[in-house]
Specification:
The complex is a heterodimer of chains A (149) and B (172). By secondary structure, chain A is an all-alpha fold. Chain A is built from 6 helices and no strands. Classes of the chains: A mainly alpha (149), B mainly alpha (172).
Chain lengths: 149, 172
Amino acid sequence: MVAVGLWGAMLGSPAIWVLPIAFPLVMAFGGVLGIAAVPIPRVEVGVAVSAIMLGLMVAFALRAPLAVAIALVSAFAIFHGHAHGAELPRGADAIAFSAGFVVATGLLHLCGIGLGLATRWPTGRLAVRFVGAGIAGAGAIFLRAAFSS
Amino acid sequence: MVLPAGLISGLLHPLSTPSHVVVLIGLGLIAGRMVLSAGAAIVAAFALGVAAGLGAIASGVGETPASDVLLAAATLCGVMAALNLTVPLPLAVTVALICGIALGLDSPPESILLSEAVAMLIGTLCGGLGALAMVAFFVSTIARLWHGLLLRVAGSWITAIAILALALRWAA
């Protein structure tokens, strides 16, 4: 989630605001699939790969056309939404869960955007790229855990 | 001065029911982005709908899928705000009317005393109307901020919350 905001900030306008708008919409669709128990194979792998890919995008300051960025982020949003939707306890309060899930996701995006604004300065740009590398590294650890489970 | 029993709980009812809060924000996002007269028409249609819904409750209408209708309407409002669509006034007024009716139907009084129940229904009408007007006013003041980005993000959040809540309700 933080990487989405970071990458959006690195890509600049309009990606900086299109990605945080697209992500919750598609994530909700993934959540519905999870709640409806529609199977998506290797969801944990998808989540880990999303962290690796987006982390690397930030780490290497890779740019992509807006359509590609939206498609990439949306694909990953489905995995995230599905993972949360599938793991939801059935007795949970529908609105409270949904609001908490969406607002937390949005705030993580905002954190990423806030950090990403540091790319205006050379030192900040380097720091953001390090954060991206860290996210990719964490994703690799998740990926290993997903394959070993 | 002593307020009638039930009026305060009626006033607070739309703010203490999460699905009502979601639809009030969603509808406020639509009303606040329009010109003043159009926004006022939306608020008026909503008030008319709430009155109709509460009237139906008072006349003994049983259980209805009003909560689901509210969430579906919130989804529609959220999508329109997220995509920054120019909403035709007749459509916006119709959605506001439906939202109002559903909110009214979803607000049965919790008291069995007639005077208290009536006070709650009046309080719900005033509370819902006041809340929508405040949200719309707030939205209109920040509509130009960052090219409307905040409103579009809020729209996407409202849409996602409403879709997930609907899915969870149907799954249960």
